[in-house]
Amino acid sequence: WLLVCRCEEQTDAAATEAIVSGLKQEIVSQLSKFKEIVVMVSAPYDGDASTSPPRFILAGSVSLSVDTFLLRVRLISRSDGSVLWADSYDGRMKVADLVGAQADIARNVSTSLAQTYGVIFQADANLHVDNPPEDWAAYSCTLSFYAYRVELSPEARASVRSCLEK
User: Fold this and answer.
1) Of the residues 15, 20, 40, 116, which has the fewest C-beta atoms closer than 10 A?
2) Does residue 152 contact residue 116 with C-beta atoms inside 8 Å?
């Protein structure tokens, strides 16, 4: 689960609301394309047992100047509050430039976080397994597959495939 929060407005300007809203919508749209990621736009309330709380929170802030904007974004692990990833983006305030910049920023954020070996995958890979599998051979094959996906080496492909087929 990934909760996408509304960006904080660092500047009191009429245009800030539109920029903040547009950025959030674009980021949610791009992240939702990744089937492995469940995107939330509002946190479940404390008494709701049907929905588990988000594991990650995407938060940010927007500052405006006369001609430009600056967006700072960070991915936070909800379990310990650590910042797993952060980046900043800037753009021009002209409407045509702003719309294009929002789409580019959303694509960059979503691929950085949700791609196969992105930040979220790396965070999951670092989790300690509390319930180890009973079949170590199958587990070993699965790990070799993930190692193969990083390098995509033709030499390793045949052995990994053979192991997984067994």
Assistant:
1) 116
2) no
